[in-house]
Amino acid sequence: MQAVTTRRKTRSASASRTSRRTVTSKRIRHRLPPARRAEQLLDVAERLFAAQGFRATSIEQIAQESGVTRPVVYDRFGGKDGIYLACLRRARHQLEESMFGEVARTGDSLKRLRAGADAYFGFVESSPQRWRVLFGGGASVSGDVADEAMRLRFETEKQIADWLGTVTPKADDQSLAALAHAIGGASHQLAQWWLRNPGIAKQRIVDYFVKFSWPAIRELARS
After folding, report:
1. Environment class of residue 33 by beta-carbon count within 10 Å: exposed (0-12), middle (13-18) or buried (19+)?
2. Of 33, 97, 160, 176, which has the fewest Cβ atoms less than 10 A away?
3. In the chain, how many domains are there?
């Protein structure tokens, strides 16, 4: 009887060790490199911010849907403000790289405007979730986060103004900045309208943007 009990205990202990090894191996298989983990967290946070806004999204949700604990998110980004701004920086970098890269590869000024518009609205079309986080969350943030979000946006407008300066070399800096912000605002509002009317082809949206923006650029060049 004692021998049977001993065998049962041995089998139980062996099964327990096997179970622990299995759990451990699963954890190891799901352990991502730091850079990949950061991208995963940003992808999850971006989806949540786009779907329910900044205020309604919590670190707990981001961690749970990423399959990690909250300290992992805090260690990487410092908190909700940090991961939100990281989402903004990633999205804006992607947009600027695409938009200004196309502008730099194109010939005359009108073609450059069209190329930049095509890249911008291509971003809206291919990454509407990312665009909504980039341009749609400003009303729900405040303080330092809102200030940093605005600073990032103004950096983009500054690049637009710099490009306009090559098209309208006699224009003063204030006029260039004003037109850059007007063009940026127009593209934002047109994108919002397009997302509510998705049956319109992207090329038509690009045509509208160029049709409305180019006369203002030519007028500034003549003044």
Report:
1. exposed
2. 33
3. 1
Which range of residues forms the domain containing residue 63? 9-222
Is 46 among the domain residues?
Answer: yes
Q: How many residues does the chain have?
A: 223
Taking only Cα atoms into account, the Rg of the chain, rounded to an integer number of angstroms, comes to: 25
Do 145 and 55 touch, CB atoms closer than 8 A? no
Q: What tens-digit pLDDT sequence spans the chain (223 residues)?
A: 444 444 554 455 444 454 444 433 344 336 778 789 999 999 999 999 999 999 999 999 999 999 999 999 999 999 999 999 999 999 999 999 999 998 988 778 999 999 999 999 999 999 999 999 998 765 578 889 999 999 999 999 999 999 999 999 999 999 999 999 999 999 999 999 999 999 999 999 999 999 999 999 999 998 8
CA 181, 186, 192, 198 dihedral sign is: negative
The DSSP-derived string for 143-199 is HHHHHHHHHHHHHHHHHHHHHHHHHSTTS-HHHHHHHHHHHHHHHHHHHHHHHH-TT
Nearest to 132 by CA among 45, 46, 10: 46
Distance separating alpha carbons of residues 26 and 48, to the nearest angstrom? 26
**Residue 2: both structure tokens together:** 């004692």
Residue 1 lies in a domain: no
CATH number of 177's domain: 1.10.357.10
